[in-house]
Amino acid sequence: MSSSPEHSYNRFDGTDSIATSVDNTSINRPFPRNAYETKRSSTYVPHNRLSRYATALTNLIPVRFNSVPGSGLPLDKIGLFSSVSFSWLNEYLSAGCKNGMTEKPLPTIAPQDSCTTNGPRLEGLWHAHVVERGQAGASVPRIAWKFVRTRVLVASFVYLLGMLMSLMSPVRHSFIKLTKWRYMAFLLCFLTHFQIFILRKIILSIEERNIMSNNTMVNMTKPSENTTAIGIGNNRTAVNLVTEKMSLITTTTLAPLVSKLGNTSLNDEAKSWFGKDNVKKLPETITHIIMVDEVIVFSHVGILIFAEVVSYFLIAWSASMNLRTASRLRSACLALMYKKLIRSSVRFQASAHQTITYFVPDGETLYELITNGPMIITGPFLLILTSMLLWFLIGHWGLIGIAALIVLYLCLILTAYLTKVFATKAIEYSLKRLCLMEEFLGKIYLAKITLWDEYFKSKIEDTRCDELADIRRGGLSEGWSLCMVHIIPIITVCTMTMAILLTHKHIVSTHYIPVLVLLLINLKHCIRNSWLSMSSISRGVTSLHKLKTILTLKDTERYPDKPIDRSLAVTINHGNFTWVKDKSLTEKAIKRSSQFYVENHEGIPVRFQVLTPTDTLTDINFYAPKGKLIGICGQPGSGKTSLLLSLMGHLHHISGHVAMDGSCAYVPELPWLLEGTLKENILFGEIFNSNRYYRAIHSCLLHNDMNCLPESDDTDLAFVKMRPAQKQRIALARAVYVHREINLLDNPLADVDINESKDIFEKCIMHAMGSKTVIMVTDKIQFLNRCDIIYVMREGRIVEQGTHEELLQWNSEYTQLINFCMKKYQRKYYREGEQISTSSTQLLMAAVPRGVLTSISTNASLDSVLDDIDDSDLLQHEHDTDFPIKYCKENGKPLIQYGIYVKYANGYCLNIFICLLAIFYTFLIAVAPLCFTYVAQKTIKDNIHIIITFAVMLGSCLVFGLILMGIYNKTVFNVAKKVHDRWMDTICKAHISLFTTTPMTILLNIYTLYLQQVDSALPRSIITILIHIGISAFSASILGLISPWLLIPIAIFVLITIFYSIYVRGAILTLYKAKVSSTVPMFNHSVNTINGRSVIQAYHKERDFTKKFYRYCDNNSAFDFMLYSVKLWIEYRIKMISGLTLGVIIFMCASLTTIRDRFELMGLAFICTLQFAMSVIYLTGTTTRAYFSFMALNGIDNYIENIIKEQPGTARLPNNWPVESNIKFDNVLLPNGLEADANQEPINFTIASGEKVGIITTLDCGESLVSALYKFTDVPTGKIYIGNTNIADVPLEKLRQCISYIPSNPHLFDGSIRHNLDPTGKVTDKILMTVLQRVFLWEKVSKLSDKLETDARHIFTTGEKKLMFLARAILKKTSKIIIMEESTTNLGPDEEIVEIVLRDVFGGYTIIVLSNQRVRYCERTLILNNGKVNETFNRKSSLSQHSIATSEVFMSVPVRNVFETSF
């Protein structure tokens, strides 16, 4: 064994379980914590002092030169510039570009962003809020706002400053004629729209120069006419000349000159005049003024670049703050969710996977909420400023454009609301679909043997259709919103332009060009942000509201009081408990005393009192002295388990008093193991002690099991298949090792063989726990006489209590229970006429005092548990089962096939048509600035023609937009439907080995997270890419038409963008893979621990498991944070380059002779450059998200392609096959796991049609036999015949229709009784009633309030569930073979009813009973032992003669075994 006694195997200390670096196969170990991180504790301490902002204020230092090494993200150790620009990512991006980050350890989350820091803070806010408003009035969004409000407000203020810097607002050049209100509007616009003031100043300078040059040229050619008008002939100073020139520009000279110049600033005569070097003849003052204008133009271009850089820096600063805020909120929500679930009562039965995926907001939703949510305020604020500026520039007629803007903005709000409504409905269908899929995967064996797989498939597909219908409606409204984002500015400009033309007959270009920039660029940006904020708030708030469902769960109750009598460990005085929280104490428990009169072999009517599982414990008086063994017995469903759970606080405590003195250990009937090794399961977080450990191992008979494990007790049990008996022994060993004062054992030996159970009872319960208080529920009556006190329960009440001898003397409930069990044993194992013992205590053990055990060594040698290890038996998981991406064989990089989407989207023709529609639509949007510029230059002189032009442009935008969104929406959701249907079809036809080799969490992750990418993320990304590709392409084309030289900076900008996108691709892939891979252990841990929370709470290990979840969550959050950081890294740099590109283009426009004197072209170039840059920025972020989505689509497709499918069978058989239900095994070698045992001999036996045969065999052999009959596994050699037909040729559906299987521990499907009998709803109530009468269940069902509509999961006992399976076999009508597995637990009266039903109802069926003992009512018994078949007809069979050695050992067969007992 690899361990040593002095080493501590504490899995909860967080030193060795979380990985922080990813390569192609695994994740490397984290950096060790250094002294600096040890000193800086991240534990949250609530206070209201300003010192809590010390770290945040420290981060405002621009540059930090002394970096502090560590393993975490250096977010609190770097300067402001590094934080905003995300330059701390450079080393990871470089490593990702070189080798996929295989040699670069990935960091952990920053301490300030961890669950340890943020979880307690959010929990404290929630508790304070609940105290203030009550649980009903508490609001999760409200406390989430309190949690993030400081950072969000600061980030929103910084973002607003950045947006105000980027908005470009023109101002009037004269202040004299302004009214008071317009003067205030001017000041506000000037202070908030600094950059457009710069643009307008450039335009005014160019226009001044043009007017001055034109008038000077006219004066010099005709001085007698124009000297006085222009003032050049007068002897004035330069200052007076500039003043007069500025007055000339702003008064009557501007309009005539603009009209005279036409569509150019200089007429042809002026151009020819200046072309002859006559510019030197200009007066010196005019030359000086023109030079000053040139300086103003170029200086303002530099200021414009600086303003853009500052704007983008502020926006990036806001984004970096919002990213950390969202990461903290996500960590806090996950931490609070898990902490609440791990402390909740077992009354909450929802799946942990559903809880995490549905009730807890994901990181993307929270990031969008934090980033876009505040824009619900900043967006309208900027819109108001835009409207004021429009009114200020254009005048009162500009209010018409403002009115159109307001109406359209309200329509946008309506479409956003409709999107939210449809999305909410779709989420409900999505949850329903997830529940169905989880039930289907969790009960896949049961679904296949009952042929419910096709029902689940059709039900899930129907739900999927309803979900897609709402998603499609939401997609249409969202697509229309996207169209409105582009169309609203165009409609506003058209309305405003027509109002001006109809009233003023001309347009002042110096005002109009900045207005175009304001409306077509900045207004579109504001509208888009407002739309995003409304969508993000609706999704985020809805997600946070759902979290309240978790936070309002009932915690387990703690009983701090100790008994007054110190000799008692547990007391309950007049206790009343219920599973239903709102159940009234006065409401009586549901009682059912049903009498079934059937005839036994002697013809005497037998009366059965059938009990229903109770949901109420009434008037409980229970006392457990210290150091005593307390036994609890009763019929199934009498409330025994509920009594133990009520002691642990899981039931709702209505009244009475509960007191406990001592710590508890708990062993449930269905044993629970944590994910880890055998040793870790036994230690359970306690310090390793050699003597205690090996004592627990030997007292629970685990030494033989350890010898068969590949790595002894260091074997991870996730890779080993274990039987229920083995799990029960491990759970018992855990209780022995932790050494608690009170041990609660719920039927701990239910699945253990009878011989082993005696040894374990002596060594473990009587000796190892001899000095402790043991409260044991058991259905094995042979242990009851060893108990000091026995409590007998019936219908939720304690009806008797006393010692074994006292209860036997009273001849009451306990005596009847003993006699019934004895009679059941005799009827089960003895035939008629055989001599049987009449002693009611035949099965009872000899009394030996507790704590006294002879010839048992409590100090085991280490050598006794060492054995050879066969590593080949340990089956490791396939690489990347949670990240199923196909890799290129040459370079090892992921192979993303984009043609897969085309394949699902009905081929290339439809996709090309959609692209053409997108081209036409984006062409109209991109050329709108060109059209408006021509209108401003009066190129289109007739207003009628202008109206027609605007109408055609708007109508075309609307028509093409509607057609595009309609066809695209239909196409993408057909893709989603096809992908889902193919997935479901493949899962239903998948070989059973898929479900034994792949954890259900991975399948659910693929089904939920990957399909979610196909449903929403990918369609949204593709349409965004199509639109912005078109806009950027046509914008670049317009720039090329203005001047081909302008394409040079555009080309450089595009090349740099492509370079950055390729540069970060390796890091993105590695981080995405790490994120997906880290999600699986987080989900597995959550699912595992939440399912076993009753055990965790009993041992008070909630804090340890919470810390472990925190580590998993922090690990996942670090990868998620880095992924978003990479996106912001590239976005920040592209924005900075776009600002430089804009400045270069404006500089070129001011320098090129063909453009420098035409400010209209300069304004058009400015608009097209901004339009191009914004489209490229959106494209960069969207293509990254689309890359993730395409990876998900490729992963689903690759996973589907590699799934092994079942062999269907090709034989054509008659409808009534099989006519004869005889079974023949001809030299069959049964597989044990995936491969057959080389030492096993072939099996040969025949079962005649209608014969009842018992098969005594081991559990493994029985499972292999049933798997072979159902064709779950392929038989290596030999043939199996049913009705003289080889089943290898029989179609699967027909084969499974003729066989009905009843497992030992049957489970029903979620739903009503009717649903479990007839999921299709085609069978009438009368037929269902008749069938239930034939299996003796109708009387019970008829007394239920909802009859057949009653939920079937919790009202039937194990025996009654077997009867439900038999009722299904009757309804199936095609069943001719019944295979039943004998139960190891006591079924009570139901066991005899099952026997009667098999004898009377299924008399003509071929019946096979699998057992480890001879079954009395079978006509013949076969004994299978290592391939040998022994047949017996002996009328007497002792327990030892016909018992297969069932000392179960851990099979080194891994989790890939093809069949499990508990279907």
Automatic annotation (TrEMBL):
It comes from the Eukaryota. The chain crosses the membrane at residues 152-171, 183-203, 295-315, 375-394, 400-423, 482-502, 910-935, 947-968, 990-1010, 1022-1042, 1048-1072, 1137-1155, 1161-1181. Residues 590-820, 1223-1451 form the ABC transporter domain. GO terms for molecular function: ABC-type transporter activity; ATP binding; ATP hydrolysis activity. Pfam families: ABC_membrane, ABC_tran. SUPFAM superfamilies: ABC transporter transmembrane region (SSF90123), P-loop containing nucleoside triphosphate hydrolases (SSF52540). The keyword Transmembrane applies. Gene3D superfamilies: ABC transporter type 1, transmembrane domain, P-loop containing nucleotide triphosphate hydrolases. This is Multidrug resistance-associated protein 9 isoform X2. It comes from Cephus cinctus. The lineage of its organism: Eukaryota, Metazoa, Ecdysozoa, Arthropoda, Hexapoda.
